[in-house]
């Protein structure tokens, strides 16, 4: 069915079923305000809200119809996410050590950033006089070499041989070609002398590959970039003048100087201001940070869990404490595990020693002491920090809730794989397990001759082309049966093909058509759970995820009394580009 017919068919179905097609547009959003979902906690979801999310979704990105079931699944994803947010506040994150540790890590990183901002970045003060002074006090950093702003024309004898008068130039000796190239370059120079614009002449006549597009513009150029005698000529010209043609190994050149910059420190400008402002800010911040870190590290006092220091950290539970900083903050074995491999590699050992583990604990303490300093300044009591902490807690809890609906840790057993295979054995059967060619003859002895010829290396279809009975133009087609199953040929033919090896040729076998010799090209094995295993695992994982999500969704819906008072209808989506208003 063509696309246009299929579209028309859909429109007829919509009309007959009485379901008006809902198109995502401003008209829908303004008029179709029906409440589709309600739940406890005063939750509700309207069609305009659903349309807004659909507009940004990648569902049917090229445009097309979403069935009622598609729309319901999309709504489910929205509602489940919202209900998981409600349940997140009921989660005890401490019950999951890994998640709680990740939460602590994120909060501590944020707290350190706030602390550094307050005690370092907010204390760095710069003024424009200081910035400008730094610029002129460091000419070695900001001095620029002498430069010219350059346009260029190139004339090459090699290129002349490929242009309109190529026959003339190709007939010349190398010496005569060099002479004619010089004459041609001077003709171009005379055009400039007659008042033609340099850029236009470069665009029309220069042999530089980019001359036509750039009109000979090269840009700012310092000494030492191009071949002699470029420097002596270019830097002797005054802005607004061009050179006479001069020659180097690449050909003849004419250069035009638009502007010139003398060697030295350029005038101080806004670009220099911004660059130096960043540089000085970084220098001052680094200086303050160095003093702060030295000061804080002097306040580190550690108590160690000695038995752990003599063990292999991978044989100890992650929550086990390994050190206490200043009698307040505990360092867990998980911190040691995170550094263990790096320290083993650093010291080239199979297991870190007690001294190495103390060094590792010290590394962790360097960050933790900043947390203690932040608390001492009461940064953790700031309203913005408290809100961030609440958000981190909520997001962690929500992640834990959503993980319950993913079923990602489930793995099917071998018994499950075997059962699925046996229950769906027809899906793995090959309808046409043999690929064969055949030749029919009335004489069994001649059939033996053809078999001997095929086994000797004569192409089977070439034999069929010559000896197969019937119309010569279709003999190859008749001989090449392709894939066959037990219902496609006589039973004796099929049984003979089954016992004939791949690339083998059978003895003549008597059928209702005469004597047939069979060449077997391929054989597909019987269905095997071993071969189907990976495919079955994917199917079982997908089915399990669908089941886990369905149960998870139903549990959430029951817990928060989710209801669907509004009718869910099919929705027609414009293309994603149109939905987002992109041109």
Total beta strand runs = 17
CATH class of the domain at 144-261: Alpha Beta
Q: Mind summarizing the main beta sheet?
A: 5 strands, antiparallel
The third-level CATH topology of the domain at 144-261 is: Chitinase A, domain 3
What's the architecture of the domain at 144-261 in CATH terms?
Answer: Roll
**Rg computed from alpha carbons, rounded to a whole number of angstroms:** 41 Å
End-to-end Cα distance: 31 Å
Mean pLDDT: 90
Task: Estimate percent helicity.
Answer: 40-55%
The fraction of residues assigned to DSSP E strands is: 5-15%
Q: pLDDT below 50 for ≥5 consecutive residues: which ranges?
A: 1-18
Structural class label: alpha+beta
Shape: extended
Count, helices: 25
Give the helices and strands, then pairings:
Layout (H helix, E strand, L loop, with lengths): L2 H15 L4 E2 L2 H6 L3 E5 L3 E4 H9 L8 E3 L1 H21 L8 H23 L8 H10 L1 H4 L4 E9 L1 H4 L5 H5 L3 H20 L4 H8 L5 H4 L2 E6 L7 H5 L6 E2 L3 E3 L2 E11 L8 H28 L4 E3 L1 H4 L11 E5 L3 E4 H15 L6 H23 L6 H21 L10 H10 L10 E8 L2 H12 L4 H8 L7 H5 E5 L6 H9 L9 E3 L2 E10 L5 H31 L11 E3 L2 H4 L4
Parallel strand pairs: 1-17
Antiparallel strand pairs: 2-3, 4-17, 5-6, 5-9, 7-9, 8-9, 10-11, 11-12, 13-14, 13-16, 15-16
Helix pairs in contact: 4-18, 5-17, 5-18, 6-14, 16-17, 19-24
